[in-house]
Design brief:
seven-stranded mixed beta sheet; Aminopeptidase; two-stranded antiparallel sheet; globular
């Protein structure tokens, strides 16, 4: 019998910061130090999210829900094969930190500073899950729009943002000091509108369906 698997997204805590630094070094070469992450953790204008995957003990025929949780509601729950929540919490037997996201709330704008997935777990839908959680967090803050910079050559990331209706709004020449590469500026407006909540729910279901197909 296969071991059930779970996915969890939540705000980082102090005990998670060393894992954040290690993933940062792997994905970005050291964007922030642990002191930098601690400042983000303490800032009321920053949402610092982590994504974990793992396995749980085997029980009956129930599977573990792979719903995408909001930062404020990250408790795991057992689910039947058709996705019905049973309300029982699974016992974790392994857990791996594979994703890191951060946004700054500046006036009415969510500035997405980073979104990283461990290289071994890319192209599986986890980036979509983490971006969804960042946009949900921005929506919960009642922000009106989201913006970000992305390497012009990072076609996978650009494609991800376009799936969430981000539009190219400009180009920052030689934005990245390590390579001198240009950055695309991308925007997503309308976060404050009632229909954006419906959009998020639709995307949530789409992401969950994809994860199910990949046995999560």
């Amino acid at each position: 019998m296969n071991v059930p698997r779970f996915l969890e997204i939540k705000h980082l805590a102090a005990e998670d910061l060393q894992q954040a630094v290690e993933l940062d070094r792997l994905c970005f070469g050291g964007f922030w130090s642990i002191e930098g992450y601690r400042r983000e953790l303490e800032s009321p204008n920053s949402d610092l999210l982590g994504l974990w995957i793992g396995e749980t003990e085997e029980g009956s025929s129930e599977r573990i829900s792979f719903d995408i949780f909001t930062p404020q509601h990250s408790e795991l729950s057992a689910a039947t094969p058709n996705g019905t929540d049973t309300g029982a919490a699974p016992l974790q037997i392994s857990r791996k930190f594979i994703g890191l996201g951060c946004l700054w709330a500046v006036l009415e704008e969510a500035h997405i500073i980073m979104l990283a997935i461990h290289p071994q777990f890319q192209s599986r839908g986890f980036g979509q899950a983490l971006l969804w959680a960042l946009l949900k967090s921005a929506c919960d803050r009642q922000l009106e729009r989201a913006t970000l910079e992305v390497r012009a050559s990072n076609l996978a990331a650009v494609s991800l943002y376009k799936k969430f209706d981000f539009k190219e709004a400009g180009l920052r020449k030689k934005y990245y000091e390590d390579t001198g590469e240009d950055a695309l500026v991308m925007w997503r407006s309308g976060l404050e509108k009632p229909e954006f909540q419906e959009y998020l729910e639709s995307k949530r279901q789409e992401i969950c369906d994809r994860l199910r197909r990949k046995k999560w």
